[in-house]
Amino acid sequence: MKNFVNHIRPRFVPDGVLSVLYTFCLGGLSFLAFIVLGVTGLLLMFHYQPGESTSFSSIVTIASVIPYGGVIRNLHYWAGQIMVVTVNLHMLRVVWTHSYKSPRQLNWLVGVGLLVLILVLDFTGYLLIGSQESGAAATVAVNILGLIPGLGTALGQISLGEPSALSGSTLVVYVWHCVGLPMVALILQFYHFWRIRRDGGVRPL
Ligand code: HEM
């Protein structure tokens, strides 16, 4: 624990580590978007109702009846899209500056895990809209998972529940999107930040 605290808030920061033109703060912007998503997502949970017949109508209610609901929903939607873009650009910057090389190869792998999590979060958010398009997307995902020999059907049930072709919103998707995946992503991000310091800070190798 002491080790974690010492590295997450170091007393000395090496010269050049904070250069904006080296990182373009793309990792920091990704984290900012993640915080916005957490706050707006929590507010949306007060009125969103998962399920085939309730999801879409609850979103319409949020957007048109609940005070500031439309603003909160749009903030959540755009922060999600922006995060997908900034995380990808951040990864390109890491490739461009060769920062995936030793000693940062483990943090690169942690980053790959984060990228997958962010994409799955974006996808499950799309399913929660509960529209016909989200129903079609959920059906495709269940069918693709079903192709995995032996495990496919169980994996589909565990990750998506039983979505209908008319709405991708199920309680299972909802809990993954609002609790399971964000928790894992948050823990992995703090490990990512700790590793940056542990690997000597952000600076040319
Ligand atoms: C939730 C997504 C992510 C967040 C919030 C995040 C955050 C950060 C932050 C704040 C930094 C410090 C420098 C900077 O801002 O560029 C950083 C560095 C780094 N990130 Fe990420 N990151 C994420 C995803 C990724 C991905 C997808 C990869 C690669 C697959 C990656 C690999 C790295 C590496 C290797 C470093 C060290 C770079 C260096 O020392 O120059 N990260 N990350």
Automatic annotation (TrEMBL):
What's a BP term from Gene Ontology annotated to this protein? respiratory electron transport chain
Q: Does the keyword Metal-binding apply?
A: no
Give the transmembrane ranges: 21-48, 54-71, 78-96, 108-129, 136-159, 171-194
Which residue ranges does the record assign to the Cytochrome b/b6 N-terminal region profile domain? 1-205
GO CC terms in record: membrane
Could you tell me one molecular function GO term of this UniProt entry? Answer: electron transfer activity
Q: Which UniProt keywords apply?
A: Membrane, Transmembrane, Transmembrane helix
Q: Does the keyword Ligase belong to this entry? A: no
Organism domain of life: Bacteria
InterPro entries the UniProt entry points to? Cyt_b/b6_N, Cytb/b6-like_sf, Di-haem_cyt_TM
Q: What is this protein called?
A: Cytochrome b/b6, N-terminal
Name the source organism: Desulfosporosinus metallidurans
